[in-house]
Specification:
Chain lengths: 211, 565
C-alpha cells in the first residue's frame, strides 16, 4: 500500500534531486512554486465580500423589522448616484482596456487608460462627497441613516484604496518598471480588486437606492 | 503492544545554512524575529499560545476560587465579570484558534503538501505578529479607566454598550486584530493546500489534517469577516452613539446576535476541526493501522463545513426566534451529528485490532474520543428547542462547551505536543511525566466539568459570581477539579523545559511514521528537505507488507548522501 517515491525508483529520484539541487543553488523560491498570488487575492476578496454580505444582511433585516421614526423615510436623491454608478461601470471597462494595452506591449496606452480609470474613481469619490454634503440626515439621525453611511463609507474606503492602487500600478507600468507584459501581476491584481469594488457597488446601489 | 522505540541515527551530509543570505538571525533569536520560515512561525504560534493558555488558566483559577463559595467574597462582582470576559476571549482567540490552526497548521501543512514553505511567507509572519499586540491590548484593557470589558466573550449589546466603554473598545480592537490574523492564516492555508502541492500528489492522497485545515480555512474566510464587520458596527454604537444594536435608538439587538453567531458557531468548528485532523494523524501511527474510511472522513469534514455555516441560530432559541427558524436550526444542528458520528466510528475502527502503543500522545488522543463523544451528545441535546430553553445560559452550556473545547481540542493539543515534540526539538519527552500529566489532566478535567452538567440542569446560571447555597457542594468539587488541572500543568512544563536539553535523542523518525514530516531530519532543515520532497501517496500505509520496509531508506536519507549535494 505504501509507495514512497525515494524507495521505489532510486535512479529516477536521484536525477530529480540533482536538478533540484541546481535549481536551489541560489535559494531562489521564485521559479519553484506555481504563482498563487492572484488566487490568494481572490480568496481575500471572498472574505471581503463576506464583510459586505454581513452589512447587507444587517441592513435588509433592519429595513424589514425596524420601523423608522415618524417623519423620516428611505427615499434618496437618485440622479447623482446613478451618474456615479455609470462612472464606476465605465472605469471597469477602461481598466480592462489598460490590461489589454499592457499585454499588447503598448505601455503608453496602458498608462493612459490607467490614468483615466483613476480619474473616474476619483470623480466617483467626489460625487459621493457632494451627495454626503447635501443629504438631509446625519450619521446618528436614525437607523437607516447610520446604515447608509456605514455601507457607503465602507465602500468608499475600498474605492479610495483602489484609486491609490491604480496610481501605484500606473507608476510601476513605466518602461523598466515592475509591471510589464511578462510580469503583469500588479496590474491583474489591481484590476481584479477594482472589478470587485464595482460589483459590490452595483449590489449596494440596488438595495440602498432602488429598493 | 508496540512502543515505537526511538531509532537513533546521525544525519549524513552537510546541514544547510540555516539562513539563506544571512538575512535572519540564527539560533533561538529567530523565534523572536520576523522569520519567514513556516516551522519557526509555527513554533512562535505554539509558544505564544501556551503563554496565553497559562494566563487564561490563571483567570479560570480566579473564577473557580470565587465560585468555591456561594457568596461573592474573593473578587468584586465587576472584577468577576472582567475576569470571565478575559478568560473566554484569551482562551478562544489567543490560545485555541492560534495554536490548533496557526501552530500545527504552519508547521505541518507545508510538509504534508510537499512544499518548502507556505504560499505567502510574509503574510504568514504578519499574521503571527498581529497576535502579541492584540494580546497586549487585551491585557492592558484591565488597567484602563473602567477596567476591561465585562460583557463576556459574546459582547452582546445592549450590555456591551452600557458597560465601561474604553475596555470594550480595546476588546473590540483586539478581537479585530486577531480576526485579521486568522483570515490571513486561512487564505495562506487554502492557497498552500490547493496551489502548492508537490507535482504528482493528488488531493485524495493528502494526510487528513490537510483536509481538516482546508475545511477550517474555508470557514475562517467565510465567517470571520462577518464578525469583523459586526464589531465595527458595535464600536460605532459605543463611540459615535449610532443605534445599530441599541434598542433605545431604534436599533435591533437580535441582528447582532445573528451576525455574531454566524461567525461564532463556525468558530467552534474552527477550533475543533483541526483537532479532528490532528487526531487522525496521531491514531494510525500509534495503532500501526491505516486510517479507517479516508474518503468518508474527507466528505464528513466538508459536510461539517457546509452544515456548520447554517446552524448558528441554535444559540438564539430564547431570543424570540420564530417557530420556522427554531425548526430549521434544530434539524440542521441535529444533522451535524451524522458526519461527526462517521468520524467518531472511523477513529474507533482505526484503533480496532491495532497494535496500540499507549504512550502519552495516544492516551491524550483516546481521552479526546471519550470526552468529545460526551460533549457531542450534550450538543445534540442542546439542539432540541424544549431542552435548550430549559438550560439556556446555565452551567449546562458551560459544561458542554468545555467538553468540546477542553476535552476535545486541548486534549488533542497536548497529544500533538507529545507526538511532534521529537520533530520540533530532536529529543523525546519523558514518558513517565507525560502519563502523570495525562492522569492529572483527565481526572481534573472530568472532576471540574462533569458536575457542571448537574448544576446547569438544576438551574445554576452562568456568568454570575453568586449562587444558591444548595449548589455549593458540586461547585466545590468542580473547583477541586480545576485545582488538579492547574497542578497538572507542572509536570507538563517541567517535561517540555527539561527534555529540550536532557531528553533522550529522538532520531529522525522515532514513531516509524510514514507521513512526510517524519521523512526528514529532526528538527528539519530550513527548507524542509535536503533534495527533493518525497512523494507520499499512502500516508497511512501501516500494517501492510510495506510497513516492514526499512524506514531508514524510506526517509529519503539516501537522497542527501548522494553526490552533487
Amino acid at each position: 500500500m505504501t509507495s514512497l517515491a525515494p524507495g521505489n525508483s532510486d535512479t529516477e529520484t536521484r536525477d530529480v534531486v540533482s536538478t533540484a539541487a541546481v535549481a536551489h543553488a541560489g535559494h531562489d523560491h521564485g521559479g519553484e512554486h506555481a504563482d498563487a498570488r492572484l488566487f490568494g487575492l481572490a480568496t481575500f476578496l471572498v472574505a471581503d465580500g463576506m464583510t459586505f454580505a454581513g452589512f447587507f444582511a444587517a441592513y435588509l433585516t433592519f429595513r424589514a423589522v425596524n420601523p423608522l421614526p415618524p417623519g423620516s423615510n428611505y427615499e434618496l436623491e437618485l440622479v447623482l448616484p446613478a451618474i456615479n454608478t455609470m462612472l464606476l461601470l465605465v472605469s471597469s471597462y477602461t481598466f480592462h482596456r489598460a490590461g489589454r494595452g499592457l499585454l499588447r506591449g503598448d505601455g503608453p496606452a496602458c498608462r493612459l487608460w490607467l490614468l483615466l480609470t483613476a480619474a473616474l474613481g476619483a470623480a466617483f469619490l467626489a460625487g459621493q462627497m457632494v451627495e454626503y454634503f447635501h443629504l438631509p440626515f446625519g450619521l446618528t439621525d436614525n437607523l437607516f441613516a447610520s446604515t447608509f453611511y456605514a455601507l457607503t463609507g465602507f465602500h468608499g474606503l475600498h474605492v479610495t484604496l483602489g484609486v491609490i492602487c491604480i496610481l501605484i500600478v500606473w507608476w510601476q507600468c513605466r518602461s523598466g518598471g515592475r509591471v510589464a507584459a511578462s510580469t503583469p501581476f500588479g496590474l491583474e491584481a489591481a484590476e481584479l480588486y477594482w472589478h470587485f469594488v464595482d460589483g459590490i457597488w452595483v449590489i449596494l446601489f440596488g438595495i440602498l437606492y432602488l429598493l | 503492544m508496540t512502543l515505537a522505540s526511538p531509532t537513533d541515527f546521525q544525519p549524513q551530509g552537510e546541514p544547510p545554512a540555516s539562513s539563506p543570505g544571512g538575512l535572519q538571525p540564527d539560533g533561538w533569536l529567530r523565534y523572536l524575529s520576523f522569520s519567514l520560515d513556516h516551522k519557526v512561525i509555527g513554533l512562535q504560534y505554539l509558544v505564544c499560545g501556551f503563554f496565553f493558555y497559562f494566563l487564561g488558566g490563571a483567570l479560570a483559577g480566579v473564577i473557580r476560587t470565587e465560585l468555591a463559595s456561594p457568596i461573592s467574597d474573593f473578587v468584586s462582582r465587576e472584577t468577576y465579570n472582567e475576569v470571565l470576559t478575559l478568560h473566554g476571549t484569551v482562551m478562544i482567540f489567543l490560545w485555541i484558534v492560534p495554536v490548533v490552526n496557526g501552530a500545527f497548521g504552519n508547521y505541518l501543512i507545508p510538509f504534508y503538501v510537499g512544499a518548502r514553505d507556505m504560499a505567502f511567507p510574509r503574510l504568514n509572519a504578519v499574521a503571527f505578529w498581529l497576535i502579541p499586540p492584540a494580546g497586549l491590548l487585551l491585557i492592558t484593557s484591565y488597567f484602563v479607566q473602567g477596567g476591561a470589558a465585562q460583557s463576556g466573550w459574546t459582547a452582546y449589546p445592549p450590555l456591551s454598550i452600557t458597560t465601561p466603554a474604553l475596555g470594550q473598545v480595546l476588546w473590540i480592537l483586539s478581537v479585530l486584530l486577531l480576526g485579521g490574523s486568522s483570515i490571513f492564516g486561512g487564505i495562506n492555508f487554502i492557497a498552500t493546500i490547493l496551489k502548492l502541492r508537490r507535482p504528482g500528489l493528488k488531493m485524495m492522497q493528502l494526510p487528513m489534517y490537510c483536509w481538516a485545515m482546508l475545511g477550517t480555512s474555508i470557514l475562517v474566510v467565510l465567517s470571520t469577516p462577518v464578525l469583523a464587520g459586526t464589531l465595527i458596527l458595535l464600536s460605532f454604537d459605543i463611540i459615535a452613539h449610532t443605534g445599530f444594536f441599541n434598542p433605545a435608538l431604534g436599533g435591533n439587538v437580535v441582528v447582532y446576535q445573528h451576525l455574531f453567531w454566524f461567525y461564532s458557531h463556525p468558530a467552534v468548528y474552527i477550533m475543533v476541526l483541526p483537532a479532528f485532523g490532528l487526531v487522525s494523524e496521531i491514531l494510525p501511527i500509534h495503532a500501526r493501522k491505516p486510517l479507517f474510511g479516508y474518503t468518508t472522513m474527507v466528505y464528513s469534514i466538508m459536510g461539517i463545513v457546509v452544515l456548520g455555516l447554517v446552524v448558528w441560530a441554535h444559540h438564539m432559541f430564547t431570543s424570540g426566534t420564530p417557530p420556522w427558524m427554531r425548526l430549521f436550526f434544530t434539524i440542521a444542528t441535529s444533522f451535524i451529528a451524522v458526519p461527526t458520528g462517521i468520524k467518531f466510528f472511523n477513529w474507533l475502527a482505526t484503533l480496532w485490532g491495532g497494535k496500540i502503543a499507549l504512550n502519552s500522545a495516544m492516551l491524550f488522543a483516546c481521552a479526546f474520543i471519550v470526552n468529545f463523544v460526551f460533549g457531542g451528545i450534550t450538543g445534540v441535546a442542546l439542539a432540541q428547542v424544549p431542552f435548550d430553553i430549559h438550560v439556556h445560559d446555565t452551567y449546562f452550556v458551560v459544561a458542554h462547551f468545555h467538553y468540546i473545547v477542553y476535552g476535545g481540542t486541548v486534549f488533542v493539543i497536548f497529544s500533538s505536543v507529545y507526538h511532534w515534540y521529537p520533530k520540533f526539538t530532536g529529543r523525546m519527552l519523558n514518558e513517565h511525566l507525560g502519563r502523570f500529566h495525562f492522569l492529572l489532566t483527565f481526572i481534573g478535567f472530568n472532576l471540574c466539568f462533569a458536575p457542571q452538567h448537574w448544576l446547569g440542569l438544576n438551574g445554576m446560571p452562568r456568568r454570575v459570581a453568586e449562587y444558591d447555597p444548595s449548589f455549593a457542594t458540586w461547585n466545590q468539587v468542580s473547583s477541586v477539579g480545576a485545582l488538579l488541572m492547574a497542578i497538572s500543568s507542572l509536570p507538563f512544563l517541567i517535561n517540555i523545559l527539561v527534555s529540550a536539553y536532557r531528553g533522550e535523542i529522538a532520531g529522525d523518525n522515532p514513531w516509524r511514521a510514514l507521513t512526510p514530516e517524519w521523512l526528514t531530519t529532526s528538527p528539519p532543515p530550513v527548507e524542509n528537505w535536503i533534495g527533493e520532497a518525497p512523494l507520499v501517496t499512502h500516508p497511512y500505509g501501516y500494517g501492510s507488507a510495506q510497513d516492514q520496509i526499512d524506514l531508514g531508506a524510506a526517509t529519503g536519507r539516501d537522497l542527501w548522501g548522494g553526490p552533487g549535494l
